[in-house]
Amino acid sequence: MWTFINDNWVDAEKASIHVSDLAIQRGYAVFDFFRTVEQKPLFIDDHLERLQHSAAVLRLKLPYTVNELKQIVLELVNRNQLSTSGIRITVTGGNAADTYTPTTPNVIITQSPLTMDAAFDAQKGITLITEEYVRELPTAKSINYLMGVYLQQKVKDAGAADVLYVKDSYVSELPRSNIFIVNQQNELITPDKNVLSGITRKHILQLAATFLSVKEQPVTLRDVLTAKEVFVSSTTKRLLPVLNVNGQPIANGNPGAVTKELYTQFLLLEKQITAVT
Amino acid sequence: MWTFINDNWVDAEKASIHVSDLAIQRGYAVFDFFRTVEQKPLFIDDHLERLQHSAAVLRLKLPYTVNELKQIVLELVNRNQLSTSGIRITVTGGNAADTYTPTTPNVIITQSPLTMDAAFDAQKGITLITEEYVRELPTAKSINYLMGVYLQQKVKDAGAADVLYVKDSYVSELPRSNIFIVNQQNELITPDKNVLSGITRKHILQLAATFLSVKEQPVTLRDVLTAKEVFVSSTTKRLLPVLNVNGQPIANGNPGAVTKELYTQFLLLEKQITAVT
């Protein structure tokens, strides 16, 4: 397997960066992650645009243009010959002699095999707990997952699948997913503030707008608990129904019709896009 | 220069870790940093105890005992033959195949030259700005300095030297320093909550207790602005007077007598400790 680091193609097993890098020194870096479907990077333009945004928020100067990054990704895909995979582009704060001030970023592009199940299992829903927290610099996809990783034990102890961040009664997102609700008026709503602009989120909003009312606006925990349907979205999950939050079942505790319909449409979109040469 | 990584002694210029390490993937790692004075690690027992605490908070299993780490540090000092230096021990979340769950930590111990000025320049005081923020898992010295590094530009734009974190009107700490005030009743006060237990802070509190009233308790921004003296402490700064916060001068805008006395006493302690063989 090949990994790309700063203009070099290296054996993935030997892909390393110097310990003076600000990612290791100060957790200062951004990244993006997307899938390939039959060797085609899914929504790559969206992901590269978001990576640019993340880098800009952290004031990191991307050493490559978006088009150059795209070419490198295509070469990576061609070299590794993985059909279904995850590709991660990490842009770090660079090797910092003073261990604190960003320099020229190190750029790391890795590819790993990924298993995706296309079937939407109606029984498959998840349970969430909540935590009072909002991510730092939430519109940037920084590598700061201190709380997400830390909270894994609490999630496990609660027998839940993941954690929903709530701050002053408003929900924002999960460590690696966005959240949506369908309210009693059949409107699809997702939080507008303190969230990462998920790429799956973006396409769900576009798909949903063709058949129901869609809103990006503040969502309270109470809105979640009283919703007809709740689901989360992410690159690796697509859509996943939420059936229970903090021990309280959502509606009747089964995946809802809108969630199922959106999953079907999203899968179709994914197939259409990756069928194009 | 030598660096220690996972039982190996490597050339500092080639000291690297694999990109699957959770420090790079998720900013998940802890560290500690201390000085050597004439080749003697200063307050090493305090720092190793704090490193143990930080690792425990993040649920990282230290692969070495405190005594083993101490021996490695002494060998590092002996190999590198630097008189005045900074030593950093980083304990990461380890190489994670799933890019999210901590595994066996990577342990990195680096040493770098450090210039310390022993003279306390009475003119040398700093200006701070404030930012509404509290560190995540504040009692652990994690590598999460996302806000600290990010705020450097704001600090620079304001012509300040550093930033003081304030949350709901209570001050906690600076990105890399603790804060102290001397109030109008000549009491030395430092925040008790949401702070890293600084090793310099600890020794200042002990020194100060011999000649004035010392309290660890909540401190408001107003307490800071109305103090007789304000100073910050850290391993590389020892004590540094704060003369101005958000454009408002502290007292008469000059370093105070308690600050100067504590600096003198701290320097003496440092010399006494490192004079012992």
Automatic annotation (TrEMBL), chains A, B:
Q: What is this protein called?
A: branched-chain-amino-acid transaminase
Q: Which cofactor does it need?
A: pyridoxal 5'-phosphate
Q: What class of enzyme is it?
A: transferase
Q: In which pathway does it act?
A: Amino-acid biosynthesis; L-leucine biosynthesis; L-leucine from 3-methyl-2-oxobutanoate: step 4/4; Amino-acid biosynthesis; L-valine biosynthesis; L-valine from pyruvate: step 4/4; Amino-acid biosynthesis; L-isoleucine biosynthesis; L-isoleucine from 2-oxobutanoate: step 4/4
What are the entry keywords?
A: Aminotransferase, Pyridoxal phosphate, Transferase
> What stretches pass through the bilayer?
none
Q: Which reactions appear under catalytic activity for this entry?
A: L-isoleucine + 2-oxoglutarate = (S)-3-methyl-2-oxopentanoate + L-glutamate; L-valine + 2-oxoglutarate = 3-methyl-2-oxobutanoate + L-glutamate; L-leucine + 2-oxoglutarate = 4-methyl-2-oxopentanoate + L-glutamate
Give the matching InterPro entries. Answer: Aminotrans_IV, Aminotransferase-like, BCAT-like_C, BCAT-like_N, Class-IV_PLP-Dep_Aminotrnsfr
Q: Which Pfam families match?
A: Aminotran_4 (PF01063)
Listed GO biological process terms:
amino acid biosynthetic process; carboxylic acid biosynthetic process
Which GO-annotated molecular functions does the record name?
branched-chain-amino-acid transaminase activity
Protein EC: 2.6.1.42
Q: Which SUPFAM superfamilies does this chain map to?
A: D-aminoacid aminotransferase-like PLP-dependent enzymes
Assigned protein family: Belongs to the class-IV pyridoxal-phosphate-dependent aminotransferase family.
